[in-house]
Amino acid sequence: MKSEQKIPVVAKEILFPFLLITSLFALWGFANDITNPMVAAFKRILELNNTQASWVQAAFYGGYFTMALPAAYVVKKFSYKVGILVGLALYAVGALMFYPAAAMENYLFFLLALYVLTFGLAFLETTANPYILAMGAEETATLRLNLAQAFNPLGALSGLFVAQFFILGALQSDDMAEDGSYIYETLSESAKAAVKTSDLMVIRNPYVGLGLFVIFMFVVIAMVKMPEGKKENQVGLRESIKRIFRKERFVGGMLTQMFYVGAQIMCWTYIYQYAENIGINNRDAVNYAYAALVIFLISRFLCTYLLKFINSGRLLMMLSLLAILFCAGTIFIQGEIGLYSLVMVSFCMSLMFPTIYGIALTGLGDDAKSASAFLVMAIVGGAFMPMLQGLILDIGGSGYSDVRILGVPEVNFSFVLPMLCFFVVAFYGHRAYKKYDLE
């Protein structure tokens, strides 16, 4: 036990590169959480139904699925640094595409911009996660990844801040009359067209600014000498894939990650719809999203500390079971108490992504590069699961309480989907705790 304590989480000589790569975790956290409120924003501005609006998340997380394997190929062929630079370049291009998308006022162009932007995020996550794992001893790999991932919600909080004050707070289409109805819905077609043009410009500007900042990060990382992991033997990607798919721990982790990401995106995307159903508009609902992220951040540091004493699989299982209880509260307790229960799900989710990632990649060596690509592809759960929730919300109409299921509005009932996802995560945690030697 004493010898394990002497192993540094991050060696001093690579501390600066570690911090630089860790900053990328905040960068894609920013993109994730500035985009989550856009589902509700595009629905209002472009007068979409819930399923159509959910295509925002389908485009955003579909990019991960499309580009993860090419990213793994680039990393294996060249280096971690090249993978990161390609990711930053694609990220910048996608963000800057919001400028012509707003000029054309075309929803499909906005979706294409998000799709390209997440090409970059796929490269960054495929590269940065295994890079962090490789920056030290395998015994401290999961702890190191949890530490790096702890900076992800800092970026997410920044994204929410921008969404609230520079987007949602400035949207004219979100203005409400004294009776609680949306003024935008009562305007003439010409007045609506003017508001639509103005609001799409409001959405455009933060993304363009983000693109310029990403270009700055590209220049900084390009100029800094980055450490590189051990060069692998000349083994093709196909052989590597065959090996990793013979590992039960990896395959289970990949499937579990898909369900976890789906649960996370559903809880963070549809918190706005849940709040609106009890009379809270989007710009005020951001405060609940803030609370969820702050709780997520505090819990991430707390759980990272607990990993020193509790087996990672066991802690994953315990938090998953607690998340199931909070989902039940979200479904069956109506009003603000149900909303608080939804917020508290974030306490349970904080540990899940990096811990599933770390468990799945343990012992894979250089095969972790290709394995990481499949774990990033599993993020596609964030693409199609919110669409399933959108379909539930559209039962009976585009409102959120058109019908009652099991005695509750459909927006409440729709959270049965993340609840089922957490059952999958709990099973994987139990499997890891009972079968895999992760001490």
TrEMBL record:
Subcellular localization: Cell inner membrane
Cited Pfam families: MFS_1
GO molecular function: fucose:proton symporter activity
Gene3D superfamilies per UniProt: MFS general substrate transporter like domains (1.20.1250.20)
This protein's GO CC annotations: plasma membrane
Membrane topology: Multi-pass membrane protein
Organism: Zobellia galactanivorans (strain DSM 12802 / CCUG 47099 / CIP 106680 / NCIMB 13871 / Dsij)
NCBIfam families recorded: fucP
Membrane-traversing stretches: 55-75, 82-101, 107-124, 145-167, 207-224, 250-273, 285-303, 315-333, 339-361, 373-392, 412-429
Alphabetical keyword list: Cell membrane, Membrane, Transmembrane, Transmembrane helix
InterPro entries xref list: Lfuc_symporter_FucP, MFS, MFS_trans_sf, MFS_TsgA-like
Protein name: L-fucose-proton symporter
PANTHER family per UniProt: L-FUCOSE-PROTON SYMPORTER
CDD domains: MFS_FucP_like
Gene (name only): fucP1
